[in-house]
Amino acid sequence: QAAEAVRKTGAVVRTVEHTAKELNATKKRVDALSAPSGVASWHVDPEANRVVVDVVADDKDDKAVRA
Predict the structure, then answer these.
(1) Pick from 3, 48, 56, 63: CA 20 to 30 A from residue 10's CA?
(2) Which segments constitute the Peptidase S1A alpha-lytic prodomain domain (predicted)?
(3) Which residues neighbour 18 within 8 Å (Cβ) at sequence distance 6 or greater?
């Protein structure tokens, strides 16, 4: 019903696995952690529907980063 209302506005509806609230909650949990030296940053990517962790190229094989 809600999706149909959105379609009527001309917008495209895309069903995603995680809500914005879930993604933001996950990012908040990551924010509270101590990042290994190989982690450069992290952010919510709403288009990919993921929380993305950016790693330093030289440390991408670091076991602490991969855990």
Answers:
(1) 48
(2) 18-62
(3) 26, 49, 50
Q: How many Å from the N-terminal Cα to the C-terminal Cα in the chain?
A: 41
Within-domain flag for 40: yes
Of 39, 47, 38, 43, residue with least CA distance to 18: 47
pLDDT, one tens digit per residue, over 6-33 is: 999 999 999 999 999 999 999 999 999 9
- Residue 1 covered by a domain: no
Q: Is the dihedral of CA 22, 24, 28, 34 positive or negative?
A: positive
- pLDDT score at 52: 96
* Domain, as residue range, for 54: 17-66
